[in-house]
Write a structure and sequence with these properties.
single chain; alpha/beta
Length: 118
């Protein structure tokens, strides 16, 4: 099973190669998509002040996957539609301010830790 999991782990920076770590300042984030084994399939660097959801489509473009898993920061109907358009299932919890919260499978959501541990 292949997954596209989204996260912006702050613990990622110390584990990057020295050259890539030097490119990342304090005002940047690295967003990642991983496969079902937790291996990275795409990494993108974004400005620290940019919302993660604004770059999520770049993470899934051109990558086959079955599940799009992310935290509440990725709650966007446009992203859910993009995931479904590519044939995947969105596992994205709704933010508290949503009028109609989206239900998610808690067991699938636990797989989100794969991206935080790569």
């Amino acid at each position: 099973m292949r997954h596209a999991a989204f996260d912006s782990p702050s613990s990622l920076l110390p584990h990057l190669p020295k050259t890539l770590g030097n490119l990342c300042g304090f005002g940047t984030k690295i967003l990642g998509a991983v496969n079902g084994l937790g291996l990275p399939v795409r990494l993108i660097q974004t400005p620290g002040q940019a919302a993660d959801v604004m770059h999520a489509k770049k993470l899934i473009e051109g990558n086959p996957f079955e599940l799009g898993i992310g935290d509440k920061g990725y709650d966007s109907q446009a992203l859910v539609d993009a995931i479904q358009k590519q044939g995947g299932t969105a596992v994205l919890p709704s933010r508290k301010n949503q009028n109609m919260p989206r239900g998610i499978d808690g067991h699938l959501y636990k797989e989100r830790n794969l991206v935080a541990r790569f």
